[in-house]
Amino acid sequence: MDLGFRYLSKAETRRLISFLGISIALILVLQYSELPNSKFLSSLTAKITSFTMDTSLANPNVESNNNMNVNASNSSSTNSLAMSPQVTSSVVYNGKVTSSEDNEGDDSVTTASVLAPQPSPVISVYKDEKSSFLQGSTPKIGDNKPVISMNSKRKPSKVVSLSEMNLQLQHSHASSKKPAASSSAVHMEILQAKSEIENAPIVMNDSRLYSPLYRNVSMFRRSYELMEKMLKVFIYPDGDKPIFHEPLLDGIYASEGWFIKLIEGNKQFTTGDPNKAHLFYIPFSSRLLQLTLYVRNSHRRSNLIDYMKNYVDIISGKYPFWNTTNGSDHFLVACHDWAPAETRGRMLNCIRALCNADIEVGFKIGKDVSLPETYIRSAENPVKNLGGNPPSQRPILAFFAGGLHGYVRPVLLKYWENKEPDMKISGPLPHVKGNTNYIELMKSSKFCICARGHEVNSPRVVEAIFHECIPVIISDNFIPPLFEVLNWESFAVFIKEKHIAYLRDVLLSISEERYLEMHKRVKMVQEHFIWHHEPVKYDLFHMLLHSIWYNRIFYVS
Ligand SMILES: *[C@@H]1O[C@H](CO)[C@@H](O)[C@H](O)[C@H]1NC(C)=O
Ligand SMILES: *[C@@H]1O[C@H](CO)[C@@H](O)[C@H](O)[C@H]1NC(C)=O
Ligand SMILES: *[C@@H]1O[C@H](CO)[C@@H](O)[C@H](O)[C@H]1NC(C)=O
Ligand SMILES: *[C@@H]1O[C@H](CO)[C@@H](O)[C@H](O)[C@H]1NC(C)=O
Ligand SMILES: *[C@@H]1O[C@H](CO)[C@@H](O)[C@H](O)[C@H]1NC(C)=O
Ligand SMILES: *[C@@H]1O[C@H](CO)[C@@H](O)[C@H](O)[C@H]1NC(C)=O
């Protein structure tokens, strides 16, 4: 190395040093990740390197880029002097090479980035120029606009990567900020809980909680314990049925109904004394609001929005609690597509648990909670058909079937319908009773594609988990459920919409060892997505309440 440096000009030296810095960062990532991930990241490193080599020859070859099994340590050390550092930094900072060959094929480097199962320096620099929390931390080179050939009005204007979402979560939970001053007993309890969670005893080996599933298992366990011990929710008695207090327990919007039913029937976490409450619940159903008030074919939702606005006016006039915190200790749980719109205005201050957890429609990471969309076919038995085949009996690599809603699914089918025998990608399946063919396919597939429809969320995410099929989420700007607690990258695959062409490569690049580990994790995370008529520890009722509690404690606006 020393010998090499002497012959380089100053500028080249600087570039070389920055490249070496990046290489070291990559090596650090490799060291800090656990075994299956390291292998995975090695392939990522290798891929970036091999891609750079190709680009420096001004002849990008998509086929060779797709080879993700290059020996990483070998290539990153031996090749570093041979390649153009200019191109390297452009690849690393932008996630793509901005050149005249700007088409989907050139994006294979970012395909690798979506694979990385752990937050890493490489990914965290995939930034948007407007994200202020990263301002100044990385150079801006080129533009970072998604390169997509498909056209749709609904396409997000800005794509937020999962690692940026992680940063936003950290940022909005930053403990350095001073919380609002207040000396109420409830406020002191919240501060006490916060401090206890931040200083949680380290959990080395919890028999019940498998640590890779969580962002921080120690904090989660402590926070959950404190919730069980302390949390009190005041449910506003105001509001008429059916929009308020009425649980709808089946269908694709059932999550909000189950929550209403279970919290209203709960003694442990509720209080009739609002002065003792840490949280205030607005018990409405977004689905029943739509069913009750939407005028068919009117294409107007303003009456629904006004209805909710009026409700807030009523409770904030009648009780002092809204005004005390401007609604920030109030929460709602709503699964219908329109819920983000219905809860705009003053309700934006509330903690909103939403199925339609879309950054594009105002979801605030660290405050709002991504509510799992659970498709309940039988309210009597919400866990009907739970389970799936063991890994050895899953001959299908990837499965998707469904209506062609939205702009992503037609692209998915264009690339993958009837293309490979082990990929079952199709439109809706022929109808059979109980949807048994669909469920059988999920049970015998390794990966289940959860592509966005009209909205970012899909019941497939939870269905895949139920049938022990690894969810492959193709939905830009979708915040995955219970995001503040779960380490989604450890048991799911995220692919950007613009990378659908690489779906197969991405899945094939996942080693058998890593697949088996992910399968095990999906099985273990299942309990968090299940509704029970009588709630049990760590089930969806508790996890949802916990996420709301956790954001109540940690969110700093
Ligand atoms: C990578 O290369 C090194 C040395 O070139 C070798 O020892 C190692 O076994 C290789 N690893 C893989 C996974 O091929
Ligand atoms: C390491 O690099 C050399 C050339 O630089 C190449 O011939 C060899 O195949 C590489 N090893 C692996 C395991 O990729
Ligand atoms: C988890 O949180 C605890 C308490 O804040 C902290 O001491 C620990 O280092 C964290 N663990 C990880 C793996 O981040
Ligand atoms: C964790 O607990 C299991 C049994 O519950 C035990 O077999 C294993 O050795 C423990 N691991 C550590 C690191 O303590
Ligand atoms: C809360 O503030 C609003 C004005 O923003 C006011 O109209 C209302 O009367 C206040 N509520 C109470 C209970 O004082
Ligand atoms: C309360 O929140 C609204 C936005 O919903 C804001 O306009 C208003 O200034 C806030 N009031 C206080 C006292 O912070």
Q: How would you summarize what this structure contains?
A:
With 557 residues, the chain is of the alpha/beta class. It has helices at residues 2-6, 10-32, 35-56, 62-65, 72-78, 85-94, 108-115, 121-124, 162-172, 185-198, 217-230, 254-264, 286-293, 302-318, 321-325, 339-342, 408-416, 436-443, 460-466, 503-508, 512-525, 540-554, and strands spanning 233-235, 279-281, 330-334, 351-354, 369-370, 396-401, 423-426, 445-451, 470-474, 493-494.
How would a crystallographer describe the biggest sheet? Answer: 5 strands, parallel
DSSP strand content: 5-15%
**Total number of strands:** 10
Distance between the termini: 48 Å
The chain-level mean pLDDT equals 79
How many structural units, i.e. domains?
Answer: 3
Class per helix and strand makeup: alpha/beta
Envelope shape: globular
Residue ranges: pLDDT <50 for 5 or more in a row?
A: 1-8, 28-153
Bound small molecules, by name, code or SMILES, are:
2-acetamido-2-deoxy-beta-D-glucopyranose
Specify Rg, calculated over alpha carbons.
24 Å
Contiguous helical run count: 22
The helicity comes to 40-55%
Transmembrane segments: 16-33
GO molecular function: glycosyltransferase activity
Protein name: Probable glycosyltransferase At5g03795
Region (Disordered): 134-154
